[in-house]
Backbone:
């Protein structure tokens, strides 16, 4: 018996619920769980009035039920009420009450469950449910929940408005098939039987294991992103998002990017995008024309590879300071610099730079690179033209004054010769002086022609006949070790030029060829008809399209490097030693050909000889 009571006592104190036995309105037995719940020591509760354990607002309810139960009346055996803790706070609890016998007399046994945790959890659940409802209501997406039978369980109010479908079709318990049938009849799913189209939609949804996503376009052009996610119980959550504006913006962005790409790809200048580390991130196709690199050869490489060594070092130092000082780059400030072509050539460039920051704060630099090679060449030609113009004015003035002096000398010589007997030594000396003045007069005429202060005297000539008639003089002008060859084609046309100037030009070119040959060699004079089409002219800036009479003088001499070849028509430029050349011969040839409506082509390289080809318009193209 003692063992059983000890075991009962241990079990009584091990249960998690509070247990109390009341008799004569006082506590006669209380377990440890109840003492912990109310904040008492177990022994302190023995003898307490039961009324001390009930909250004042629930005291009458507890007393009434207790007395009725002791009297044997039929009252509820479980109910909720609030108990009073030792610290004066209340505790919601659930009571389960039975009448027992304690020491031979009636008593009440009450098992008590603390509802505080359950109440807190219930409040949290209510709050979360409310939050979920508010979230559902405020979302811009339409949301519907379907059961496994594809009937609506709930959702927010957005779906009917988004799909322009009557709200009653989304009521709880309504079938999704009614919505599909409504949309099919309206033509949202395309042509076909509405019933079949609606059933097809239902089958598509029912047969999907993991859900599906599709894009839907309505008749009025709106675009919806529809997503169907499967629930664990076999039901579905359907979300509809209006992505019309998003798709429109995406399309506009793609169109804008395409236009920008077209602008970059068709730009004449190089447009390059470089990050703050100096790495090329984007470059257009002009890089091939200017630098000789395809864009994909440059992306990911350091931009310094497009600069000369000195420019690269200067650029690296500047960028290091610029990034360190965090100063904005001056926009639209162009500067000239030297670039490096893929083949090693140095290029004159004009670079305009600006910078911007990306969304993550990275600094990016955009540069517009222009090739100045052609502009520099035009500027050089302009300077040369200005020098020629100034020289022409000076030459013309000198020639005019010199010609007046010659006229006086010739008149005086002729007057003196009238008084001298022919055959005498004095008469012969006068003839020599007269011929010298005539030669000097010829020189002044050429100078005036060079200065364009004396018009040419063009006439229709046969270039082949002129060369043949002049061949004797040309052969006599070169030493025996140099062979002079004259060639002409049968189809060479006539041209309209100043014959005297043509002969002088030919003699000048032959003499230049003679001076270029040291020892044995060959000079070849050729007359031919030549037609140049637009394609040939586009590939060689020195050529002009059309039909021409070409007269060339080629030698097997030492040839010329490119730096000399580009200067041979400059007045007073000569490679001959002092006293061996004036530097005016080729300038006069060039001026004569241009004044005659033609152009000159030079082909020469070191060790490969030189060919200078004069082009004159054919006579037929100059006459109506």
Residues:
């Amino acid at each position: 018996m003692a063992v059983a009571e000890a075991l009962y006592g241990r079990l009584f104190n091990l249960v998690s619920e509070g247990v109390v036995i009341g008799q004569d309105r006082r506590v006669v037995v209380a377990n440890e769980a109840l003492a912990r719940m109310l904040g008492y020591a177990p022994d302190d509760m023995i003898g307490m009035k039961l009324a001390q354990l009930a909250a004042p607002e629930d005291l009458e309810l507890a007393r009434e039920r207790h007395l009725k139960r002791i009297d044997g009346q039929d009252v509820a055996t479980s109910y909720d009420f609030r108990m009073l803790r030792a610290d004066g706070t209340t505790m919601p609890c659930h009571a389960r009450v039975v009448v027992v016998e304690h020491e031979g007399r009636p008593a009440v046994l009450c098992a008590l469950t603390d509802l505080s945790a359950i109440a807190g959890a219930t409040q949290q659940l209510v709050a979360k449910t409310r939050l979920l409802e508010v979230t559902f209501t405020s979302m811009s997406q339409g949301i519907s929940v379907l059961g496994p039978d594809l009937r609506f369980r709930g959702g927010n109010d957005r779906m009917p408005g988004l799909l322009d479908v009557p709200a009653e079709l989304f009521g709880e318990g309504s079938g999704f098939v009614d919505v599909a049938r409504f949309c099919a009849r309206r033509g949202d799913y395309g042509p076909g039987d509405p019933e079949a189209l609606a059933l097809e939609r239902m089958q598509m949804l029912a047969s999907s294991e993991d859900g599906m996503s599709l894009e839907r376009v309505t008749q009025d052009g709106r675009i919806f992103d529809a997503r169907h996610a499967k629930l664990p119980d076999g039901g579905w959550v359907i979300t509809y998002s209006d992505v019309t504006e998003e798709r429109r913006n995406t399309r506009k962005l793609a169109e804008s990017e395409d236009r920008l790409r077209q602008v970059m790809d068709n730009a004449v200048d190089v447009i390059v995008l470089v990050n703050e580390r100096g790495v090329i991130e984007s470059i257009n196709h002009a890089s091939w024309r200017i630098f000789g690199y395809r864009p994909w050869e440059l992306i990911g490489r350091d931009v310094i590879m497009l600069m000369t060594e000195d420019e690269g070092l200067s650029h690296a130092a500047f960028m290091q300071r610029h990034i360190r000082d965090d100063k904005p780059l001056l926009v639209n400030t162009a500067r000239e610099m030297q670039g490096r072509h893929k083949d090693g050539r140095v290029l004159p460039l004009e670079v305009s730079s600006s910078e911007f920051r990306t969304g993550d704060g990275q600094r990016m630099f955009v540069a517009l690179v222009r090739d100045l090679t052609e502009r520099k060449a035009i500027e050089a030609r302009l300077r040369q033209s200005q020098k020629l113009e100034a020289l022409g004015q000076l030459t013309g003035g000198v020639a005019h004054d010199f010609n007046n002096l010659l006229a006086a000398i010739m008149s005086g010589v002729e007057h003196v010769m009238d008084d001298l007997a022919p055959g005498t030594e004095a008469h012969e000396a006068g003839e020599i002086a007269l011929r010298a003045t005539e030669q000097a007069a010829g020189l002044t005429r050429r100078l005036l022609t060079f200065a364009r202060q004396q018009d040419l005297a063009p006439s229709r000539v046969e270039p082949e006949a002129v060369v043949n008639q002049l061949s004797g003089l040309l052969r006599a002008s070169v030493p025996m070790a140099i062979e002079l060859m004259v060639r002409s084609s049968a189809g060479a046309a006539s041209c309209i030029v100043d014959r005297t100037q043509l002969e002088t030009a030919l003699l000048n070119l032959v003499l230049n060829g003679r001076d270029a040959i040291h020892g044995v060699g060959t000079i070849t004079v050729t007359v031919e008809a030549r037609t140049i089409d637009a394609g040939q002219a586009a590939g060689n800036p020195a050529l002009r399209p059309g039909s021409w009479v070409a007269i060339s003088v080629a030698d097997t001499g030492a040839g010329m490097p490119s730096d000399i070849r580009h200067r041979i028509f400059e007045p007073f430029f000569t490679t001959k030693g002092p006293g061996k050349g004036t530097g005016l011969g080729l300038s006069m040839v060039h001026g004569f050909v241009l004044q005659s409506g033609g152009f000159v082509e030079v082909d020469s390289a070191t060790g490969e000889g030189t060919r200078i080809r004069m082009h004159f318009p054919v006579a037929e193209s100059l006459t109506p």
